[in-house]
Amino acid sequence: MVIIFTVFGLLTIDPLFRKLGADPEMIPLIRQYMEIWYLGLVFLIVPIMGNNALSAAGNTVFPSIIMFVAFVTNVILDPIMIFGLFGFPRMELRGAALATLIARISTLVVSLYLLYAKEKMLTLQPPKFKELINSWKSILHVGLPSVATNLINPLAISITTAMVASFGVVAVAAYGVVSRIEMFVVMILAALSSVIGPFVGQNWGCGKYERVDKALNVSFIFCTLWGLFSAVVLILFGEWIAGLFTDNPEVISIAKLYFLILPVCYGALGLVMVSTSSFNSMGMPYKSTAVIVIRTLVFYLPLAYLGKITAGLPGIFFAASFANIVTGLGFYYWNKKTCLHPACKVKQKNS
Questions:
Q1: pLDDT at residue 123 above 80?
Q2: Is residue 348 over pLDDT 50?
Q3: Is the overall model pTM greater than 0.85, yes or no?
Q4: Buried b (16+ CB within 10 A) or exposed e, 209-235
Q5: What is the mean pLDDT of residues 193-197?
Q6: Cα dist. 104→38, 66, 71, 79, 257 in Å?
Q7: 3-state class of 1 per DSSP?
């Protein structure tokens, strides 16, 4: 599958990024980065699967080690390979991509070592065909809806990027800056959602529905508090933080506008991430897919387009914030209703 995606990606770099709003002058620079990035896909996907397997087994330490190795490797190699330090040639964008590739190779090596040597989760013995088919059925029951859910978000981001690109290169640069700053906020929520999945799955499978409900309550409270804290910080200091990434006053101005609108929804975004992970762990992936489809196709993209033609960039930002808040509250209600369903209470009492 990685080979198919890699070949397809390499053949579609130019038309894809032109659709995303790239100028002809930008295409050669984009190719410098993406040609290497696509070749490193296998080193990205295998560690992701390995991390999920380790987390599902209740081991959240090793995935943290794997990600930390990648982070440190990337931080060290980026300036060396981009600017040509310590005798290395100056490779600029290619250097950034190559540093990421090497960091991902390191995660692959560490991941395979931990899965094979430490956790004994890999075997060189091929399974029987019937066993393989049964395993695929169990995985795809959750996997296929999850794939659909995970494809929708990048698609929405791509369409949003194209909308933002219609306002010029400065708007795209600002969108890139705020996305990187936003990543630090969302990273905490993503970590929580990755941990809550195995916990919910194990307790749900044991019939301990009240523990699941309690864990989700604590997680939802944390998401709300973290969202409020992040909103206060970014509303007050977002302009200054954006200034650390760029000295362009137009880019900083757009970033400031973004941080006056979007941070209010970060808590709700956390509810979406935690709930999606929980529903998948309960064996109810279609609920996650349904809500994400409603969020993206019913609320976000139509409102973003309407906001773009009526209010410009602020309209796009308001659409994203509104969609996250509505979806987060909807997920919260659906999760609570699922955990406290009368059938679950009966099962809890009998168990």
A1: yes
A2: no
A3: no
A4: bebbbebbeebbebbbebbeebbeebb
A5: 83
A6: 12, 10, 9, 17, 35
A7: coil
